[in-house]
């Protein structure tokens, strides 16, 4: 989010009520919720890991599959924009120190090659990992839960603990409120992660050895 915010002409519009982030997340959430809801309504318990596998082999649904492929390619490029913005500056800085002549002459070509390697890495990961639809929830329930619910309150307490405890700018009630709410979020997320991890590992085991 930060690389995109830094590129905006008016960065304050990123998180406003009708700003870039709420509008984009609202639209994406509506699309995914609609796809999941209507997909389940159409196919019920027979829905497969990818909704395209349930579609009939007719010209109309062939066009639908092609549009989904195009959307996946475009969405993948947008997602990798943030990854490149985070990784390429450090890679370029180290490359300039070790290979100054090469980066001075072919810097643009090397950046394109770097992007191609990232795309190929994700492609080979998707191809080589069997039962990828089982691995995605496993990563989501672990890394996703930690990044979204455990790390933010933990690092907030780690960063502002002394400032909160000084009671100079914050009251005692505020300190206990933040302590209790952040602790509850971390504990709840921990329970969800443990039970979700157990369920996903059990599902992987039964799928592979059944």
From TrEMBL:
It holds the Pfam family Aa_trans. The chain crosses the membrane at residues 20-43, 63-88, 112-129, 135-155, 175-198. It is found in: Membrane. InterPro entries: AA_transpt_TM (IPR013057). Residues 1-193 form the Amino acid transporter transmembrane domain. Keywords: Membrane, Transmembrane, Transmembrane helix. One of its GO terms (cellular component) is vacuolar membrane. The keyword Membrane applies. One of its GO terms (molecular function) is L-amino acid transmembrane transporter activity. It is a multi-pass membrane protein. This is Amino acid transporter transmembrane domain-containing protein. It comes from Romanomermis culicivorax. The lineage of its organism: Eukaryota, Metazoa, Ecdysozoa, Nematoda, Enoplea.
